Amino acid sequence: MRPSWDEYFMEMAEVVKSRSTCIRRQVGAVIVKDKRLLASGYNGAPSGLKHCSETGCLRDKLNIPSGERHELCRGIHAEKYVLYK
Question: What is the pLDDT of residues 38-68, one digit of tens each?
Fold first, then answer.
């Protein structure tokens, strides 16, 4: 069965998240206007910095629970990254 437009673009976000370099959580985002994909992005380290998948996650190393001490994370949210593009 053919997916709705919303389902179609949500599936794209699922595929995009596979490029995430975050060890803790993989997130993908897409920007769509008038049923057209404008941009896509995923969470991870900013361009020019080593990825957490290469260096390890500081929050993991310090056993920091999910939802705490976000200032230690070098990653950029997928939503912010896709808008930055």
Answer: 999 999 888 888 888 888 888 888 998 888 8
- What pTM was computed for the model? 0.80
Cβ-in-10-Å burial (0-12, 13-18, 19+) of 31 comes to middle
Identify which of 38, 35, 36, 42 has the alpha carbon closest to the alpha carbon of residue 19: 42
79 catalytically annotated: yes
- Domains of the chain plus CATH, in order, are 5-82 (3.40.140.10)
DSSP 23-52: SS---EEEEEETTEEEEEEE-BPPTTSPPH
